[in-house]
Amino acid sequence: MSKGFKVNDNTPEVIRAVNKMTFKTLEEFTAIAADITTDLAPVRRVRGGNHRSSITYDDKVFGGMRLYSQSNYGAYLEFGTSKMAARPHFSKGIKGAINQFKDESRWKT
Length: 109
What we know:
The protein is mostly helical. The protein has one domain (12-99). Helix content is 47%, strand content 7%. Strands 1-2 form a two-stranded antiparallel ribbon. Helix 1 (12-40) packs across helix 4. The longest helix is centred in the first third of the chain and has 29 residues, at 12-40. The radius of gyration is 18 Å and the shape is elongated. The chain starts with 11 loop residues before the first helix and ends in an 8-residue tail after the last helix. 13% of the residues are buried.
């Protein structure tokens, strides 16, 4: 059986408060994912980590957050090419953030 709660109060103030809490949690999750992704990002010894320093996130997506790289080659690193093996770091960063959020003690107040 799932643990949870039911909100019977549908006043606009309560709905706004819940939406704000949900967005704040999403923003926290994305920040953690960005930190982990940055740590895992491959660094090219010749150029010194331009891709790593270009990983960021923002809330420019309607109703959500986005995690992305400002470098022009982030997708090539993540998925590989016909001449270069994939070096996934975004997917691993997201999985790492999911694992941190699985800990139920994080949500107890």
